[in-house]
Amino acid sequence: MPWPSAAASGVVGWRTTATASQRYHRPMSDTPFAEPYPEQRPPWGVPPPGWDGSSRPAPSTTPRSPGRWSLVAALALAVVSLGVGIVGWFHRQPHDKPSPAPSAPTFTSQQISDAKENVCAAHRIVRQAAVLNTNQANPVPGDPTGDLAVAANARLALYSGGDYLLRRLTAEPATPAELRDAVRSLANALQELAVNYLAGAPDSVVTPLRLALERDTRAVDPLCV
Fold it and tell me: From start to end residue, where is composition biased (Low complexity) (predicted)?
């Protein structure tokens, strides 16, 4: 529809009189208008970029610290390392296997003959010392000191004789096996009898030991001919 005319709208025309000027151009007060909505400023001074005027700063767009992921990664690495260590323990490399036991040494016939001669010579001297000192008589019959001296010499001959034979076997590794076993048994019998004499064992204990010593002596004698 057509716009209404000026007469219809009640407006005769634009007024430019003083009254109209005073109506539309009133003098301004000396006091400035107060701001209806004072600007909000952050308490810390210069507003950061992105601040929307509220008292709370804009949320940071910086990603969170990866502390949790670092902890998870370290834990995973530790588990993997432990697994590798366990697998390596149960699957050793070939060079980690224990070396095989060395084979028994071999000896020449001359070495075996020399060892046999030396061990048999030790057996003869030990037998002579044992027979001599176990059959001594007290030079002063009834003298307790003499009886004690005779008994001490006999026990010393038995025990030291067994020790001497064992040392000779160690020094002569080329000794034939049969002779070595017989001499070792004889040496043990000598020392066992000597210790029981020193302990004051009764005849029920000493007699079987003396018989074992005689049996071992008879076993060595034919091997040293």
Answer: 54-66
Q: Phi/psi at 34 (nearest 5 deg)?
A: -75, 145
Q: Which two tokens stand for residue 90?
A: 């149960």
For residues 176 and 80, give the distance between their C-alpha atoms in angstroms, rounded to a whole number. 58
**How many angstroms separate the Cα of 127 from the Cα of each of 165, 173, 176, 183, 185?**
10, 22, 20, 12, 14
Which 8-state DSSP code applies to residue 117?
Answer: H
| Whole-number pLDDT of residue 103 | 76
Q: What phi and psi values does residue 41 have, to the nearest 5 degrees?
A: -120, 145
Give me the helices (H) in 91-176, please: 109-134, 144-171
CB half-sphere exposure, 110, CA atoms < 13 A: 0
Give pLDDT, residue 8.
44
Q: How many CA atoms lie within 13 A of 128 on its CB side?
A: 6
Structure tokens at 180: 């070595």
Provide, rounded to the nearest whole percent, the portion of the chain with pLDDT above 90: 51
**How far, in Å, CA of 137 to CA of 124, rounded?**
22
Residue pair 168/121 in contact (Cβ under 8 Å)? The answer is no
Question: Does 86 have pLDDT greater than 60?
Answer: yes
C-alpha–C-alpha distance, residues 217 and 186, integer Å: 6
Higher-confidence residue: 2 or 183? 183
Q: Which residues contact 178 (CB under 8 A, 6 or more apart)?
A: 223
Quote the CA–CA distance of 30 and 140 in Å, as a whole number: 154
pTM here is 0.56
